[in-house]
Amino acid sequence: MTPTPLVQTLVVDDEKNVTDLLKIQLEEEGFGVDIANDGAVAINKVQGKRYDVILLDLKMPRVNGIDVLKFAKENHPDSQVLILTGYGDIKTAVDTIKMGAFDFITKPYNFEELLVSVKNALDMRRLMVDNKVMKMQLQSGRFEIVGQSAALKEVIDIALKVAASDASVMITGPSGSGKELIAHLIHENSDRAAKPFVAVNCASIPDTLIESELFGHEKGAFTDAHSLKQGLAEIADGGTLFLDEVGDITFIVQPKLLRFIETGTFRRVGGTAELSVDVRILSATNKDIHREVEEEKFREDLLYRLNVVHVEVPALGSRREDIPSLVEHFLQKKSKSRQVKRIAPDAMRLLENYDWPGNIRELENVIERAAILTTGDEIRPESIALTSKVRSADLRRIPTRLSLAELERIHIENVLKANAFNRSKSAQALGISLKTLYLKIKHYGIETPALRI
Ligand SMILES: Nc1ncnc2c1ncn2[C@@H]1O[C@H](COP(=O)(O)OP(=O)(O)OP(=O)(O)O)[C@@H](O)[C@H]1O
Ligand SMILES: [Mg+2]
Q: 63 with 37: CB under 8 angstroms?
């Protein structure tokens, strides 16, 4: 018995030779294929079964493609519809995109191109479904965490598990990776959620002020202390105190912080009364805090108190699967009331191949800029500005048996892919002229999609 195909498609066209050929071609690719030779049959099929992708002809007698599209989108919004259309119907085809179709393909179709479109549609579908799952898990929080990589799921898992306890959690990870977001997630899922979440950025407050920021001061404690001021620890009472950039706290303040964490008590600067509060301590740093301890810049006993549970947020470059859903998320977020822009597949490839040294914050900025610069509804590679180099192959892993020519071919191919097959950009990155690049593409027989300069 052959196993049930994982991907189910429906091919709708009134020309039987079209549906029959597509059935053979798609089945060869491992897809499950049902066919319908008119709109009414298509609607019946869609009613009875959930299809991943529907290939849909527009012009059919009785019920036309537009009605099938409407029906499919209303009943199974995550089914992706690809419109098959003749050259004369391009305008209608464009309108179908606005109605929720994923893409359109003109007839006579080229099967390779059609397949790329089907695969893109499936990626989009997976993204929609995964996002829904993730959104449901985190519904309780105002802070939406997007991504479906195993690495991110593990971080979220630990965060949710420790949320209920009062344990101190230290969150480490590179800049812009989402440490503060994880701190919020922990707070929102704890019993303290209704109480304040107070963040203190330890790096931005000068040494002389951090103690009074944290613990407050009495009137007249120092020259500028004109009135009594409550510290952030007091304001956070009952809730969570988030010590951001905790690695930047100097040796002078560290013992005071340690005492506070150990006893829950403190004195305001210039005060004598011992005050006590009930706060849960979360902290974050992008420094290698263990090295700071070795170099005697950070007290080991303080680290021990802060780091009862350790959560490491991985760099975006090590969980690239999260990139497409983050891109979608930021597109939605940045579009506000305007129509949400789409991202062209070659632009998405560019984003997926970049190494993201500034992590998610950098991605967010790149998308915001691209959304502003794009006047149409599709973001093209030209609007995407990446500061550092596109991810390059790990040079140490190149097998030594490769000839120089083979290496050149592979490198040219990689650079072309990384630049979404934009010849001018690729030539520039390779440091050769456009003409030389053309000659080399021809020489090596490198396959490239339709000409794009
Ligand atoms: N998984 C995610 N889903 C959605 N948004 C995210 C995700 N991770 C991070 N962000 C967003 O990216 C930005 C940077 O995240 P955050 O401020 O939490 O990073 P950080 O690790 O604290 O950075 P830094 O070390 O620079 O302080 C924020 O706007 C945050 O909302
Ligand atoms: Mg931060």
A: no
In this structure, the number of other CB atoms found within 10 A of the CB of residue 46 comes to 24
Query: Parallel, antiparallel, or unpaired for β 275-276 and 265-266?
Result: antiparallel
Residues 213-244 have pLDDT tens digits of 899 888 877 777 777 778 889 888 999 999 99
Give helix 404-418 / helix 345-352 axis angle, nearest 10°: 120
286 lines ligand 1 (CB under 6 A): yes
Q: Which CATH superfamily is domain 395-444 in?
A: Homeodomain-like (1.10.10.60)
Q: Is 134 in the pocket of ligand 1 (CB under 6 A)?
A: no
User: Is 318-383 the same fold as 150-314?
Assistant: no
**Nearest ligand, measured from the Cα of 286:** 1
Tell me which of 3.40.50.10490, 3.40.50.2300, 3.80.30.20, 3.30.565.10 is the CATH number of domain 8-122: 3.40.50.2300
Q: Which residues, 6+ apart, have CB-to-CB distance to 34 below 8 Å?
A: 8, 9, 10, 11, 45, 49, 51
pTM of this structure: 0.60
Tokens of 406: 């083979």
Instruction: Specify the ligand 1 atom closest to the Cα of 286.
Output: 25
What pLDDT is attached to residue 413?
A: 86
Q: Which tokens go with 397? A: 């892993």
Whether 362 lines ligand 1, by a CB cut-off of 6 Å, is no
| Distance (Å) of CA 194 to CA 122, 145, 237, 354, 397 | 41, 20, 12, 40, 52
Work out the burial of residue 393: count CB atoms within 10 Å of its CB; fewer than 13 is exposed, 13-18 middle, 19 or more buried.
exposed
Lowest mean pLDDT among 222-226, 357-361, 390-394: 390-394
For ligand 1, is residue 175 a contact (CB within 6 Å)? yes
